[in-house]
Amino acid sequence: PRGVYAVDGDVERPGWQAAFEGLPVTCIVESRSFDAGELRITALSRRDSFTADLSIPAADRFHIAFGHGPDFALGNVRADLLVAGHTHGGQVRLPGIGPLLTLCAIPREWAAGVTRLEGGRTLVVSRGIGMERGPAPRFRFLCRPEIVVIDAAPGPR
Prior knowledge:
- By secondary structure, the protein is mainly β.
- It is 3% helix and 27% strand.
- It has 1 helix and 12 strands; from the N terminus they run E-E-E-E-H-E-E-E-E-E-E-E-E.
- A 6-stranded mixed beta sheet has the order 3-4-6-8-12-11, with no helix packed on it. Strands 1-2 form a two-stranded parallel ribbon. A two-stranded parallel ribbon has the order 5-7.
- It is globular, with a radius of gyration of 16 Å.
């Protein structure tokens, strides 16, 4: 009811937005914040999502910030819910060690799942369904693909 939004990843070619033509999807190319009813939404460009010193002010309503890369969670991002992907959960995870590689600046423990951050913020990083491309190995080990569905309901702040 508050919209459908898409951000590009690392392998999309120019014109990736054409995949959503005719659909009620807002494609995010440049970062922007806007109100959607009782929500404040900050949608980050791919570049900004990898900015570890990003600053986003708090909002007067429940605030969701999302982007492809999770590095923005290291900055002064005053959103209640931060959502990202990119890491593929590490793609290869070892017991007691976790992901071997995440290709981003966040701590390896944040590379998949839910992480509670200071200030009552929550970071959700999806393992996604894809894998690295190019010369990288095309497999997963102890890191199942996933599609994350987040149900947010009103409650005390």
